[in-house]
Amino acid sequence: MDNKTYAIGVLSITAVILLVAVLIISSSTPAARAGEISSVAGDFTISVGHATNDSELLYIVDNTTERMCVYGVNRKTGKVGLLQQLPVDPAQLGGK
């Protein structure tokens, strides 16, 4: 076996190993999830939280009326539903 044939063999094996590694990494990529994200826009504060593997919670606070609505978002069905509506006490949050 000459050096040229040996080099081609080594390069071919290296290429196969790299291809398998790329295929394994790309097939095991986890699904993207929304993390604890908050945003303030006008009189509303919106926050997203994780509940279970299949659902997320959406918190919407109306800063003028000091009320919070909690919505459940089911990722499998795509449905959104009101779970709870409650007053927010600014004294408990360190405001006013």
Features:
96 residues, alpha+beta, 2 domains, 5-stranded antiparallel beta sheet, 38% strand
How does this model look, in words?
There is one protein chain. The protein is α+β, with helices and mostly antiparallel strands and 96 residues long. It folds into two domains: 1-30; 37-87. 26% of the residues lie in helices and 38% in strands. The protein is built from one helix and five strands, in the order H-E-E-E-E-E. Strands 1-2-3-4-5 form a five-stranded antiparallel β-sheet, with no helix packed on it. A hairpin with a 4-residue loop joins strand 3 (55-62) and strand 4. The longest helix has 25 residues, at 3-27.
State the order of secondary-structure elements, H for helix, E for strand: HEEEEE
Q: What is the typical, i.e. mean, pLDDT?
A: 83
Largest sheet: 5 strands, antiparallel
What is the total tally of β strands?
5
Lateral strand order in the biggest sheet: 1-2-3-4-5
How many domains, in number, for the residues?
2
Q: What overall geometry do the principal axes of the alpha carbons give? A: rod-shaped
Q: What's the number of helices?
A: 1
Q: What is Rg? A: 26 Å
Percent helix, as a range, is 25-40%
Distance between the termini: 84 Å
Structural class by sheet pairing and helices: alpha+beta
